[in-house]
């Protein structure tokens, strides 16, 4: 997966999570609890799907991370009907991955800029006339 695609995916997931949480809160405030639960669930599903893909990739590489805890939290919250809690966890997870992606992109740009300033050659064995 290219860095640009990964960055855009993280932005999209954050957008889904934020839109689901906010729209659910609006429905909740106007007394439409069923629609609120649907909105919160709709914001969680894309984040959870992307998280499951990431977990499978990590496990395939032999790595185990804390992403499993986030997936379990969202899944259990949805299973028990706690859609607001699932939406909050989805927003926290997607926000964290967005910030991590942003920091990696910035570090990548800064390193490229720094490496562009490295001298390409050197003068070796120059003679100085002290005469």
Automatic annotation (TrEMBL):
Keywords for the protein's UniProt record, in alphabetical order: Membrane, Transmembrane, Transmembrane helix
Domain of life per record: Bacteria
Listed transmembrane segments: 12-31, 37-56, 68-93
Name of the featured protein: Heavy metal translocating P-type ATPase
């Amino acid at each position: 997966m290219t860095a640009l695609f990964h960055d855009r995916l993280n932005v999209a997931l954050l957008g889904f999570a934020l839109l689901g949480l906010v729209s659910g809160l609006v429905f909740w405030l106007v007394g439409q609890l069923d629609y609120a639960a649907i909105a919160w669930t709709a914001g969680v599903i894309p984040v959870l799907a992307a998280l499951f893909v990431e977990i499978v990739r990590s496990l395939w590489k032999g790595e185990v991370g804390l992403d499993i805890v986030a997936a379990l939290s969202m899944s259990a919250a949805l299973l028990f009907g706690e859609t607001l809690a699932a939406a909050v966890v989805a927003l926290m997870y997607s926000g964290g991955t967005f910030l991590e992606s942003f920091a990696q992109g910035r570090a990548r740009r800064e390193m490229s800029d720094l490496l562009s300033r490295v001298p390409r050659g050197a003068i070796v064995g120059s003679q100085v006339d002290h005469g």
